[in-house]
Amino acid sequence: MEIAHGRSSVLRRRDRKYRPNPSGTASEEARIECIVQIARAMKALISREDSAHISGVRSRARQLIRVAVFYFWEEREFRKEDPRRPTSEKASTEESYSKLVYDHAVPASIVADLVLEQADDAAVVKAILEQLNFPCFIHQEEDKLLNQRKLKSRMPAAWDGRDPLARYREVGIKIPGYLD
Q: What is the C-alpha to C-alpha distance for residues 97 and 17, in angstroms, rounded to an integer?
């Protein structure tokens, strides 16, 4: 099997255990509909008057949407640790899986908020996921750099709302084939 973008040897080793993802056989429309239904339910829960008295209801709703996006969207073609996932230049040379971080170019909480806001329009939710949901592997040191620059869970102040790699561009993280 050809390993794209110079994956680290630890990801190549995991590839030997690769099994196709059974949820990848569901239609794209069905996967989007599952995400939209969960987002609509969470939006309805948040809008209830009595939910204001429930501690952390919005953050729990966001968390459920993030989980739905992961299982119904991110894993549609291959599993999380599959070597075909985009990988930063630095992470691709790493020998230890423990030094890799599964990250989202646009933080998952931001994508979840956008999905929650647009829960009534499946076409818009699909466009958000296609454009902004970009999971990849980065190195632990690159993750620390994002933290130091206060970009761990937010986008740069000048973000245009469209470039999913703006955070990585801001701190110099290179993703071969996407951001060189």
A: 15
118 lies in a domain?
yes
pTM for the full model? Answer: 0.82
What are phi and psi for residue 37, nearest 5 degrees?
-60, -40
pLDDT in tens, the chain (180 residues): 233 444 454 555 454 444 545 555 678 999 999 999 999 999 999 888 777 677 788 889 999 999 999 999 998 877 888 888 899 999 999 888 889 999 999 999 999 999 999 999 999 999 999 999 999 999 999 999 999 999 999 999 999 999 999 999 999 999 998 876
- The answer to the question of residue 180 being in a domain is no
Distance CA(68)–CA(75), nearest Å, equals 10
Confirm whether 111 is domain-assigned.
Answer: yes
The number of distinct structural domains making up the chain is 1
Residues 6 or more apart in contact with residue 150 via CB below 8 angstroms? none
Domain holding 156, by residue range, is: 4-171
